[in-house]
Amino acid sequence: MNQHVPYGGPLVPASNQTAGDDAKILGSKLREIAAVVFSPAEAKTLRRFTSGEVARILGVTDSRIRQLSPELLVSEAEVAPGGRRMYTLADIHALRAHLDAIDRVGKRYLPHRDPAKGEHLQVIACVNFKGGSGKTTTSAHLAQSLVLRGYRVLAIDLDPQASLSTLLGVRPENEREPYPTIYDAIQYGAERRPLSDVIMQTYFTGLDLVAANLELEVFEFEAPMQSARRRPGDVEPPFFARMAMALGEVGERYDVVVIDCPPRLGYLTIAALCAATSLLITIHPQMLDVSSMHQFLKMMDELMAPVREQGAAPTHDWFRYLVTRFEPQDTPQTEIVAMLRGLFGDRVLTKAMLQSVAISNSGLRGQTVYETPLRRDEVTGSTYRRALDALDAVNGEIEKLIARAWGRS
Ligand SMILES: Nc1ncnc2c1ncn2[C@@H]1O[C@H](COP(=O)(O)OP(=O)(O)O)[C@@H](O)[C@H]1O
Ligand SMILES: [Mg+2]
């Protein structure tokens, strides 16, 4: 990064600080850092795309894009040095809709689901209790990739640490007003709000977000208390059915929901597992991660037992392992991947998310690779392209699973 990041500063450590005082100090420091590292504007914005990138996204040739009437575009014209027109994501969506309208036979440009054909809302939960296994990175890139492919997507951040929210432009330390989270839509009693009140639109046109913050923790206390108090015939859905209940309120607006789960098996995660139509378990191929995943799977099964006993066990359309941060040159890693494939067969996705400087650098800047333009001072064109190809391959494989769940292929 070229910018000077103000990690240091004139702070004089004071004695007698409480956690609350320290939170204030840290909060203002984080805002200061964010102002430098991230865009100085409060709201995150998305860059524009070149016609070449638009062609790649829409799967047509560059010349086809440039032949389309500029009147189809919905954003104000912006031209790059050299005279090339630059496209916003809203423009890309408009072009996609146009191509879909004029190209009815042949391939589908708008892949929206058709409930009349039984194409049900896909709810993909990204889980594992190992921090750093790439859940958030996977969730963010999957959600954005699906939007770029023309789907209507809702991302739900279930981690009180709010990493996905931050990536998608909502930073707890930056927000002046308290903002709602999924907790508001799944809490018990009269305070509960419909999920539509909680959803925020993001700078990534077509991607909606239910952001997270520490308030989510309240559910971890409330859910067991409410469960203990339950009497036969209660009308309030039990904790494990509450996420599905909330999603039911907005389901028809979306094709896919991506849930970034917290790194633990609490009540929130169980509610997400019960609302999910499919599970994506991210695994970094190292021995410690594999044994931690073993614990996770075992405990997940145990925790789901009471749900199964109540006849509410979810049936998932698919359940897949995604190898993340994979280094193909690293022999121990390839051995672990081979072992996982031997054990789980095609439940391990064929494509893996490669360890890539393009991904970690984008992450440092609070962005995904899809939104970071190539910066030649940081990565070479081929590194950047390799990361994009790996992401497209993984997300394309997941798209096929979605299509299959809809009976399309
Ligand atoms: N494929 C990758 N290549 C390089 N860095 C990655 C990759 N996936 C994740 N990271 C980095 O690893 C760290 C942890 O990833 P994250 O997605 O936050 O994991 P989790 O949500 O499971 O805790 C982040 O700093 C992220 O930028
Ligand atoms: Mg995370």
Outline the structure in words.
The chain has helices at residues 19-37, 51-58, 62-67, 89-102, 135-148, 163-167, 182-186, 217-229, 242-248, 267-275, 287-309, 331-344, 357-364, 381-405; strands at residues 122-127, 153-157, 200-201, 207-210, 256-260, 278-283, 318-323. It is globular. Helix 9 (242-248) crosses helix 10. The model has no long low-confidence stretch (mean pLDDT 89). It has 14 helices and 7 strands. Helix content is 42%, strand content 8%. It folds into 2 domains: 51-102; 115-405, 3-Layer(aba) Sandwich (Rossmann fold). The longest helix has 25 residues, at 381-405. Helix 11 (287-309) links the parallel strand 6 and strand 7. It has a 7-stranded mixed β-sheet with strand order 3-4-2-5-1-6-7, sandwiched between helices. By secondary structure, it is of the alpha/beta class. It binds adenosine-5'-diphosphate and magnesium ion (MG). Residues 135-136, 159, 163 line the site of magnesium ion. Magnesium ion is lined by residues 135-136, 159, 163.
Radius of gyration: 22 Å
* Uncertain segments: none
Bound molecules: adenosine-5'-diphosphate, magnesium ion
Overall mean pLDDT: 89
The coarse overall form would be globular
CATH fold title of the largest domain: Rossmann fold
Span from first to last CA? 44 Å
Q: Class of the largest domain in CATH?
A: Alpha Beta
Set down the secondary structure blueprint.
Blueprint: H1 19-37, H2 51-58, H3 62-67, H4 89-102, E1 122-127, H5 135-148, E2 153-157, H6 163-167, H7 182-186, E3 200-201, E4 207-210, H8 217-229, H9 242-248, E5 256-260, H10 267-275, E6 278-283, H11 287-309, E7 318-323, H12 331-344, H13 357-364, H14 381-405
Parallel strand pairs: 1-5, 1-6, 2-4, 2-5, 6-7
Antiparallel strand pairs: 3-4
Helix pairs in contact: 5-14, 9-10
The chain binds adenosine-5'-diphosphate (ADP) and magnesium ion.
The site of adenosine-5'-diphosphate has 18 residues, from helix 5 and helix 13.
